[in-house]
Design goal:
It is a single chain. This protein is of the alpha+beta class. The chain has a single domain, classed as Glutaredoxin (3-Layer(aba) Sandwich), CATH 3.40.30. Helix content is 24%, strand content 23%. It has a 7-stranded mixed beta sheet with strand order 3-2-6-5-4-8-9, covered by helices on one side. Strands 1-10-7 form a 3-stranded antiparallel beta sheet, covered by helices on one side. The longest helix is centred in the N-terminal third of the chain and has 18 residues.
């Protein structure tokens, strides 16, 4: 396991378009999230212990903000034959196991992750209603144990965005396993 931190992406950067298939066998692109007050794109995978420890919190945040105009989407770019746990079939199993309430998409070419500048799992990007980057960073200050978290960065960013408030441009990177790039 290679531990990485997310790389800086300038606030205000437009979201990159994509067209990817979800575990529900539907195709999704940016247009499907038009009108959302907040679009949370999480580059994630199945096998990473950092993602597994935070998965339930992400589901809970989607539930909390769904009726306030936030939409979450997970993207798995770990399509490397050395990591069979990240297969599309396994993605479907994880959706059921974690009662996922947001689309989980497959990025088999890994081009979407490259366009966004994602490097680790989870790598969390939050876009405003115009699909410009509002927040890029960690979920909270304790990836391993939610009960020990004192600062809830993603929750605070979503609250600020939805209520029309500014949010600090000084953002703490997410950390997790490296995306497993194909050679």
């Amino acid at each position: 396991m290679v531990l990485l931190e997310s790389e800086k992406v300038n606030i205000g950067t437009p979201a990159h378009d994509f067209l990817l298939t979800g575990t529900d066998d539907k195709e999704y692109g940016l247009r499907d999230f038009a009108g959302a007050k907040a679009l949370v794109i999480i580059f994630m995978c199945n096998h990473c212990p950092y993602v597994q420890a935070q998965w339930g919190r992400l589901v809970d945040l989607q539930e909390k903000y769904l009726n306030q105009g936030a939409r979450f989407v997970g993207i798995n770019s770990n399509f490397n034959p050395d990591y069979p746990e990240d297969s599309f079939e396994k993605m479907k199993e994880y959706v059921a196991e974690y009662n996922m309430n947001f689309p989980y998409l497959q990025d088999p070419s890994q081009e979407v992750a490259k366009k966004f500048g994602a490097v680790c799992t989870p790598d969390i990007f939050v876009y405003d209603g115009e699909q410009r980057l509002f927040y890029h960073g960690r979920l909270d200050d304790n990836w391993k144990d939610a009960s020990l978290a004192e600062r809830h960065d993603l929750d605070e960013a979503l609250s600020a965005l939805i209520s029309g408030q500014a949010f600090s441009e000084k953002q703490i990177p997410s950390m997790g396993c490296s995306i497993k790039w194909r050679k």
